[in-house]
């Protein structure tokens, strides 16, 4: 490139947003609280999952609606998935403890777990079922969103630990690339909550490794999700889940709202897209929670509510009420069940969105 070309690139690239570092919402900059004492003993690192991801679905054999639990398949699913879930929960627990107490032992523990799984190149198998690749994307979302709290904390706990963090971040980048490969080019008529969770995982990873290509893929999936909300606030592909339509509408909210907040933090405001589709969807879901009969009437099936019994299932309320002006009834509901925590979205979501200014990037 000649000097004129180089000068033009310097002028044009920032305007296109290509030279800007990706950032998370402001709550991720929270510093650790320092308290005297020592960290509890770090649990022995779970054996890294390096085998195939041929994990069965808990709904195996239940037909197109995939809404009837298969007891035998569920037992095999739980057994195969446990090793991965232990990683997700332990890393989140150690990061939360570090934020709460500021003790180096918790930081060491989280990095030790991530480091051993990274060194083993865990979760990168190209042999997988639909459920197996789902476990990969859920794990990526969990560890990336926890790691972001270390990477962007004003306490700067990772400063001077580059030899330890470099392979972890390289592993997160490879997982992000693999999740894109897993979920790209899906038929539009089949895109549902799985696509949103995959996109959320890749978006969190993209900010960890500052990869604009991964971020843009995630934003494209978010735009698809927004476009799928119909005029009544339903997601037609989740209505196909029949008895679990309400539960899967609610399950879709977490990744969609987190991606909306991350996009906003990076200068992409999609709140108004498709005539405020996300707000319309949130209103529909809240009405369904209040009266599941609405979804029963819509689908023709009585709704299974077993997946709506934990407060953490409604953690999406935090980014939602930070991005939109919540109704008084929504605000009262949210306050009544706080703090809202879920390890697959970043741990304590109430803490992340405690102030309205915590939506928009560096504070």
From TrEMBL:
Organism annotation: Metapseudomonas resinovorans NBRC 106553
Signal peptide extent: 1-19
Magnesium is among the record's keywords: no
EC number in record: 4.2.2.3
Domain of life, source organism: Bacteria
Domain spans labelled Alginate lyase: 55-295
Any one annotated GO CC term: periplasmic space
Protein name: Alginate lyase
Keyword annotations: Lyase, Signal
Alphabetized GO MF terms: poly(beta-D-mannuronate) lyase activity
Keyword Signal annotated: yes
């Amino acid at each position: 490139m000649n000097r004129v070309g180089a000068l033009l690139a310097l002028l044009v690239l920032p305007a296109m947003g290509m030279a800007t570092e990706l950032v998370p919402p402001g709550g991720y900059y929270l510093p650790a609280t320092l308290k005297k004492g020592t960290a509890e003993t770090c649990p022995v690192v779970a054996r890294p999952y390096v085998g195939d991801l041929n994990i069965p679905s808990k709904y195996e054999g239940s037909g197109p609606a995939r809404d009837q639990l298969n007891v035998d398949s569920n037992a095999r699913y739980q057994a195969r998935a446990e090793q991965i879930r232990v990683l997700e929960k332990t890393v989140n627990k150690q990061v939360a403890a570090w934020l709460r107490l500021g003790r180096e032992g918790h930081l060491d523990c989280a990095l030790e777990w991530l480091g051993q799984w990274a060194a083993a190149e865990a979760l990168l198998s190209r042999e997988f079922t639909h459920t197996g690749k789902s476990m990969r994307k859920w794990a990526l979302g969990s560890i990336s969103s926890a790691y972001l709290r270390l990477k962007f904390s004003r306490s700067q706990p990772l400063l001077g630990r580059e030899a330890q963090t470099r392979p972890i971040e390289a592993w997160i980048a490879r997982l992000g690339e693999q999740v894109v490969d897993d979920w790209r080019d899906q038929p539009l008529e089949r895109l549902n909550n799985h696509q949103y969770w995959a996109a959320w995982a890749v978006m969190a990873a993209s900010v960890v490794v500052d990869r604009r290509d991964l971020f843009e893929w995630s934003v494209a999936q978010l735009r698809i999700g927004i476009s799928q909300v119909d005029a009544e606030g339903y997601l037609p592909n989740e209505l196909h889940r029949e008895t679990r339509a309400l539960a899967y509408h609610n399950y879709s909210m977490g990744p969609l709202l987190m991606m909306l907040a991350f996009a906003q933090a990076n200068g992409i405001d999609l709140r108004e897209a498709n005539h405020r589709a996300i707000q319309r969807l949130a209103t529909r879901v809240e009405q369904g929670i209040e009266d599941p009969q609405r979804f029963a009437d819509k689908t023709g099936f009585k709704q299974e509510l077993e997946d709506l019994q934990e407060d953490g299932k409604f953690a999406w309320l935090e980014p939602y009420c930070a991005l939109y002006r919540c109704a008084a009834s929504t605000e009262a509901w949210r306050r009544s069940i706080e703090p809202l925590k879920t390890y697959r979205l970043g741990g304590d979501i109430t803490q992340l969105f405690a102030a309205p200014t915590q939506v928009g990037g560096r504070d």
